[in-house]
Amino acid sequence: MLTAPHFQDENKAREYLEAIRWPDSPVCPHCGVIGNHYRLEGEAHRPGLLKCKDCRKQFSVTVGTVFERSKIPLSKWLMAAYLLCSSKKGMSSHQLHRTLGVTYKTAWFLTQRIREAMREENGGLMGSGGGVVEADETFGNERKPRRQGKKGRGYQHKTKVLTLVERGGKARSFHVPNVNAATLAPILREQISADAKLMTDESSAYTLVGREFASHGFTSHGIGEYVRGDIHSNTVEGYFSIFKRGLMGTYHHISEAHLKRYLCEFDFRYNHRTALGVDDAARTVAALKGISGKRLTYKRSDQA
User: Which CATH number fits domain 132-146+153-257: 3.30.300, 3.30.420, 3.55.50, 3.30.450?
Assistant: First the structure.
């Protein structure tokens, strides 16, 4: 797959991305007009440059996307997207910088942009029509620096993650400040349909909010109960097993400032998994369809 023409040739890469972003006709990112354009093909113009007949502004397939103003060859962007989408437990920026032959700083920002493209919006309520939604929390490690004068490499700070998984469907993960009813209940109300069946463990954080759904089944892990008929949270536990292997084996430590984008990455791959009939190429196309309207600068990526 990595020998495909759009990974080797810049013109093929541009044509490939144009076909994904503009399946019918180019859309001006400045004024939104569809199809009313012409290509600038003179020697003074770079390949792929178009001009809108309405607003008279120039644009290319990368304008208005997470790739905008990047000096990295588009073929390498596409290869990076493919590698990140096809690696079940993710790919570190160190590995990517060695594979693509770019600097580590470039590889890190490149992966942050691709994760931003993976962010899915307007997904609707989970479990609508009586579906089953499992909810659970897990913890990740973030290395914090020791205070001045202390020895050692730092200490571990536990970052907290809530994940909702609809059986046979998608996952949504959230970085939360605390694991308690005050924090978790509003997220469940906002994300899950009232006619859904909620499945959790015995945590008291779900006791009251669980009454707001069609039913609330829970198992008591404290006494070794993990399944009782169709009552279990094994699906979300399976999601966590992949997330944990990616965290410990690939990324090792994720800072709280960037955790939300890593969660987008793991949610995206789960939501476009092989079990749903999505292969690596289709998963990459799905990620590339999300590049529009998500401009991310170095400053923004450093701060959030």
Answer: 3.30.420
